Amino acid sequence: MTSDSWPAKETLRLAKLQGYNILDTLPDPAYDDIATLAAHICRTPTALVSLIDGDRQWFKARLGLDVSETPREIAFCDWTIRQPDVLVVEDAYRDARFAQNPLVAGEPRIRFYAGAPLLTSDGYALGSLCVIDYQPRQLTANQIQSLQVLSRQVVAQMELSFQANQLKLSNEHLEQRVNERTASLTSALNSLLKAQSRLRRREIALRHSSLHDPLTGLPNRSYFLQRLDQSVQLTSRQPKHLYAVLFIDLDNFKPVNDILGHAVGDQLLQHVAGQIKRLLRKSDLVARLGGDEFAVLLDDIPSEEHAIVVVQKLQRQIQCPLVIDQQQISIGASIGITFSSHGYRHPDAALRDADLAMYQAKTQAKQQAQFRLQSRLKQNKQAFRKSLKPFKSPIFIQDERSPVEQNFVVFDAAIQSGNQARRSLEDELRQALFKDQFQLYYQPIFNLGSGQLSGFEVLLRWHHPERGCLNAEEFIAIAEEIGIVRQLCWQTIHTACQKLKQWRSHPSCPGLLIHLNLSLPQMMYMELLPQWQTAIAEYHLPLGAVQTEIKEQILLSSDPAVMSFLQSLKELGIGLCVDDFGQGHSSLSRLHQLNISALKIDRTFVKELTSADSADIVKTIIDLGRSAQMRVIAEGIETQQQMALLLELGCPLGQGFWLAEPMSAADVDECLLAS
User: Fold this and answer.
1) Which H, E and C letters describe 285-313, residue by residue?
2) Cβ-Cβ contacts under 8 Å for 371 (sequence gap 6 or more)
3) Per-residue model confidence as pLDDT tens digits over 191-237
4) DSSP string, 201-228
5) Distance CA 338, CA 326 (A)
6) Coil, strand or helix at 337
7) What number of CA atoms fall less than 13 Å from residue 146's CA on the CB side?
8) 425, exposed or middle or buried, with CB in 10 Å at 0-12, 13-18, 19+?
């Protein structure tokens, strides 16, 4: 079945199912017996007679399962009705279609599934007879054949029940039908015309809703691909026909939803949809693909340069500030472009390549923003060193405004090659999470004067089966983008708090602290806050025992979500430690506003301690920490000379390979037992 015919076919299929009047009826022994027989033949604990409704699957018979229905979007049987043969999933964990399914990842943790479609005589699949197991397995050819035979018996039972019900209704309404035959022909004709009119309106409404986005009124993905397919076919017949596909992803849209609410986010999407449509020709098409993603088809364009000009206009228009509910909102857009000159034969391929180019544009925008930030840091550092003696402080007040980064990229073969390598790494990361390849290491932080253990910095490592032990810097950015960092964060928080509780019970470590690094993307995960709260409460950790390390540039973020997140951490009793401090970028007001509890001297200054400039900066940071009652930690101590100079300057705390390398939890346990 093609994607074009599916909506119409689905409408007829649902009508066919409703005609049997079987949904939400009482259990029937006939169906229960068939399910029991299927489970017995296939040797599975669970068997179901499942009927696929518009948005749910409902079980007419169920053996070994308590629920009577599940959402259709997670139903294995929704895949079964799309094919004529038995669907067998031998191990759902290893099947890309089902590995992330809530019924697989969570209860009841389905591992094996086999379903035979319930096909009517005129070819409509109303549901399936399926068997389920909670461990991987296979079926024999005889078992599969038996499942097909039993599925036909289910349909036969449905037909039998339908005919019996029809006969009953026929007898009950015989007198009514006789009376209806005596009604006036004019009245019957009028009723028929009205019914036909209502049906036509309903069909029109259903078709419109199936092909349009309800929020913006724009065509949806299905409509867009149908129209794009027409352009693809036309270009195959007329090679000079040129079209461009644009994939648009809004930048900084998520904070709008998180901070201002989904109602404001919806208004913003409607505004952007109107802005895009207003700039296009009547022959062009704009569609909303979902979320904050849009697609544009520029059809029959004179040149590729025409598309570039349109993209630039779109980005300028989208970037214009908008006021909603007295809130000024500024966003940008990353846009990927591909052209018909690549010789596409299928519309999905063109949309996919535009998506890849969009992702590359978003990556470039992030890199440009990072480069701009590093340039500012470098300029601040150089300016500070030139003015060191007069000012005696590395803390400057900087402009907190940052431009909205946006970019566009035209698809080429290099993007596709790079995307394949990235996809491979993404797949390895997802597998690493399930295979428990991530491990926490703990780098000790010492009191430099007494040599006593003060705490640990928690470091995430990936034990890659081929590349060995990888530092977080080598994979964490991609983990954040594909979403698995959410699970990693929770595992890290839980494990680190558990170990801290254990180690603080040791007589020599009652005041032990742990430091966990927190990146800017992780601050967008508001669900981390209750996870922190749960872990601290579960292990009865006192205020300040857990410290989160943030980069110095985060202090100057103008994003209200970031400030709200940091304030919430403080309210939970979690300390804030500024990592890589001293680059000359921080705002004194932010240090006091957030009640920063610790500063980590940037390792660059520790490495260059023999330089008078670096020594003065380190001394200034130490004095600042002492006067503001903030703990000061020197990181990256690698030589005895660095250690001696830090002691001379009065640095209270430090960490580095010269003191101790990062250790596994087992190594820490062993050291504490030996002490």
Assistant:
1) EEEEEECCEEEEEECCCCCHHHHHHHHHH
2) none
3) 655 665 676 676 666 676 778 889 989 999 989 999 999 999 999 88
4) HHHHHHHHHHHB-TTT--B-HHHHHHHH
5) 38
6) strand
7) 16
8) middle
